[in-house]
């Protein structure tokens, strides 16, 4: 199993103990697209942060490609994030005074086995805009740059936090179609978190979180192209 989460627990103490994750478990095969679906406060972001090595679990385990992430120390987690993961966020976090190509190269220059910048630009449909600055791009184009920046490092796992949360329907379809293309072209395993149930049809596996627990797991035998998604 490529991604395995077992009995994961997490609590925060702010004067009152809040149990955010209560024995969460999920599994994904290599090359799948997975969606973690749930309302605000269900534990989605905390779960993704632990899988991404930027937060710590109280108990349970996370394994990615045979490596137990929950056993790593701080310096090992840095190497894990640098070598194995790509991140796509709701807000693009581009460097405003760097061009599209330079935003991508910032990541490729510190990656162990990066893809070629021109190959990634072609994959996301931005070859003709590589010398533009973020302010000269639409919201959808900026999100495409953030996806290109995430995949140029050739990650084992691409984590997407509400990647269409700030976009309209048509632009969202374009971004989700691009993620499907990345999955097919590069074989990248993709895990998204969202509150939008409309996109679950494009995923191989869907994990519905409710109050810190996995309430339902669905495996889709037929994958819907993102262009057909409606909401």
Task: Describe the protein's architecture and organization.
This protein has helices at residues 44-51, 74-84, 100-108, 117-123, 139-151, 169-186, and strands spanning 3-13, 17-28, 33-37, 59-64, 67-68, 85-88, 157-161, 189-194, 205-210, 213-219. The chain is of the alpha/beta class and 231 residues long. The protein has a single domain, classed as 3-Layer(aba) Sandwich (Rossmann fold). The chain has a 6-stranded mixed β-sheet with strand order 6-7-8-3-9-10, with helices on both faces. The longest helix has 18 residues, at 169-186. The two termini are 33 Å apart. The mean pLDDT is 93.
Topology overview:
Blueprint: E1 3-13, E2 17-28, E3 33-37, H1 44-51, E4 59-64, E5 67-68, H2 74-84, E6 85-88, H3 100-108, H4 117-123, H5 139-151, E7 157-161, H6 169-186, E8 189-194, E9 205-210, E10 213-219
Parallel strand pairs: 3-8, 3-9, 6-7, 7-8
Antiparallel strand pairs: 1-2, 1-4, 4-5, 9-10
Short description:
With 231 residues, the chain is an alpha/beta fold. Helix content is 29%, strand content 28%. The mean pLDDT is 93.
Following the backbone from N to C, one meets helices and strands in this order, namely: EEEHEEHEHHHEHEEE
CATH architectural name: 3-Layer(aba) Sandwich
The top level CATH class name: Alpha Beta
- Radius of gyration from CA coordinates: 17 Å
Number of helices: 6
Instruction: Name the shape in a single word.
Output: globular
Tally of structural domains? 1
CATH topology: Rossmann fold
Report strand %. 25-35%
Name the helicity range.
25-40%
Which class best fits the helix and strand makeup? alpha/beta
Going across the biggest sheet, name each strand in turn: 6-7-8-3-9-10
Distance between the termini: 33 Å
CATH superfamily: P-loop containing nucleotide triphosphate hydrolases
* Low-pLDDT segments: none
Secondary structure tally: strands: 10
Averaged pLDDT: 93
């Amino acid at each position: 199993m490529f991604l395995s989460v077992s009995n994961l627990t997490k609590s925060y103490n702010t004067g009152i103990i809040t149990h955010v994750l209560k024995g969460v478990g999920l599994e994904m095969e290599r090359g799948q697209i997975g969606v973690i679906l749930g309302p605000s406060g269900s534990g989605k972001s905390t779960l993704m942060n632990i899988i991404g090595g930027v937060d710590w679990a109280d108990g349970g385990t996370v394994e990615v490609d045979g490596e137990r992430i929950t056993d790593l120390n701080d310096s090992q987690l840095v190497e894990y994030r640098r070598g194995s993961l790509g991140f796509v966020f709701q807000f693009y976090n581009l460097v405003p005074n760097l061009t599209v190509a330079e935003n991508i190269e910032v990541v490729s220059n510190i990656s162990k086995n990066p893809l070629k910048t021109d190959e990634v630009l072609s994959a996301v449909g931005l070859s003709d805009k590589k010398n533009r600055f973020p302010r000269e791009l639409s919201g959808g184009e900026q999100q495409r740059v953030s996806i290109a920046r995430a995949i140029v490092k050739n990650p084992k796992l691409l984590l997407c936090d509400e990647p269409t949360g700030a976009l309209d329907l048509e632009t969202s379809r374009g971004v989700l179609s691009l993620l499907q293309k990345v999955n097919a072209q590069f074989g990248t395993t993709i895990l998204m978190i969202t509150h939008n149930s409309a996109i679950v049809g494009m995923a191989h596996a869907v994990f519905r979180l409710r109050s810190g627990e996995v309430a339902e797991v669905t495996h889709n035998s037929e994958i819907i192209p993102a262009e057909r998604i409606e909401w």
